Amino acid sequence: MDVAVGKITKVSDSEKHFRELAKTTQKRREWFAEPEVQSAAKRGLEPNSSQCIGFKVPLVLAESGSPDTAYIADLYEYVSFLGDLNRQISTLPDGSKIRLQVIP
Questions:
Q1: In the predicted model, what is the mean pLDDT of the chain?
Q2: What is d(CA 79, CA 52) in angstroms, rounded to the nearest whole number?
Q3: CA gap 26, 39 in Å, rounded
Q4: Is 104 domain-assigned?
């Protein structure tokens, strides 16, 4: 799957500032994909404490966010996957094209 890398930016200078910004509607939408999470919840996707809502195309990628690609994922596996993905694309310029290959 060929996809474009979305814009990666620094979000805050401190944890306190991050927590203040996270209270705003705009940042909840941007950082936590709040509309996508609400859409998934309407479809019955409500994770427990060891799960999260994952997306077949990760939200960091420009082609992401389609609600029909949401699923319940193991929190630790998904965070590990996203951390590895973000590490691999962290030095690419915004808008770079990548080929996403997931090997089980």
A1: 82
A2: 9
A3: 17
A4: no
Distance CA 98, CA 5 (A): 7
Please identify which residue in the block is written with the tokens 């094209």: 97
SS3 content of the chain, % helix, strand, coil (to 5): 40, 15, 40
pLDDT at 20 over 60: yes
| 94 within some domain | yes
**How many residues in total does the chain contain?**
104
Structure-token pair, residue 36: 């996508």
Residue 48 lies in a domain: yes
Sequence-ordered list of residues with C-beta below 8 angstroms from that of 56, at least 6 positions apart, any chain: 69, 71
pLDDT value of position 45: 92
